[in-house]
Known about the structure:
Blueprint: H1 3-9, H2 11-73, E1 87-89, E2 92-94
Antiparallel strand pairs: 1-2
Amino acid sequence: MSLRNVCCNGPNGRQRGASLIGVVLFMSLLMGLALTSLTFLNSSSKEVRRSRLDLQARLVSEAGLSQALVSLENGGSGTLGSKENPVPYGSSSFW
Length: 95
């Protein structure tokens, strides 16, 4: 019996190989979970940004409608600004 047969074909050699495969599979699983988490966080932040912009657009349009209504109630035409000359409202504008 040679030293090589005892070292590599014995029960300890096979167990070490099985452990290595288990560790590689576990690390692959962890990497997959990490990538999934990063993808989820990225899409969540995009959704939050989009919702904030939608809310901002809605509030600006409501402000424009309110100002037009006040203009009409005071005998005005209700026309506020134009595409070329919009009415500023915070960081946005309307016409």
